[in-house]
Design brief:
mainly beta, four-stranded antiparallel beta sheet, about 15% helix, 10 strands, 2 helices
């Protein structure tokens, strides 16, 4: 089969068109950063002691945040620590509560969260007196946060690291 001049031009133009479309495409817009902060009240905790995490969600939008799901769990490195013993012993009352198992649990913020408002809750962890300890022994967490706003039409989610506390021996 003989190719005509127009078919040759069309074949040559296809790769150029594809490259042009790829180069002109705009990247997908990333979700805004999570409006979430987490702090521990103690950088170092002794065995038998306790530390408290304060988790705060802010609403930077012009509509209320009406649904929030959040879990708090130990990091993989924390779960690998042999002999590290700690439990969640208190959950603050700033929210509708926490699940029974805060390590895998859900913090239930009071919603709706008005534009510009913040909501915080605390979780207190107690380290067992016979827990492993040392300069490299830490209890750290991560949190998966998902929330919806704009009447459920918009959402954001992500995983956030939460620094906990080093466990000292003395």
């Amino acid at each position: 089969m003989r190719r005509t001049h127009s078919s040759r031009v069309a074949l040559a133009a296809c790769p150029a068109l594809a490259v042009g479309l790829l180069l002109s495409a705009t990247p997908a817009q990333a979700d805004t950063p999570l409006p979430f902060t987490a702090v521990s009240d103690r950088q170092t905790t002794v065995r038998g002691g306790e530390f408290t995490l304060t988790l705060t969600l802010s609403n930077p939008y012009d509509t209320p945040i009406q649904f929030v799901y959040q879990s708090v769990q130990p990091t993989y490195q924390t779960s690998l620590e042999n002999g590290l013993k700690f439990t969640a012993t208190a959950c603050g009352t700033q929210t509708n509560g926490c699940s029974d198992n805060v390590h895998g649990g859900i913090a239930r913020y009071n919603v709706p969260l008005a534009p510009g408002a913040t909501s915080s809750f605390t979780v207190t962890y107690t380290v067992a007196p016979d827990s492993t300890c040392g300069a490299a022994t830490r209890i750290d967490f991560y949190s998966y946060l998902y929330y919806e706003y704009k009447g459920g039409e918009a959402k954001n989610s992500g995983i956030v690291g939460i620094p906990g506390s080093q466990i000292a021996c003395a």
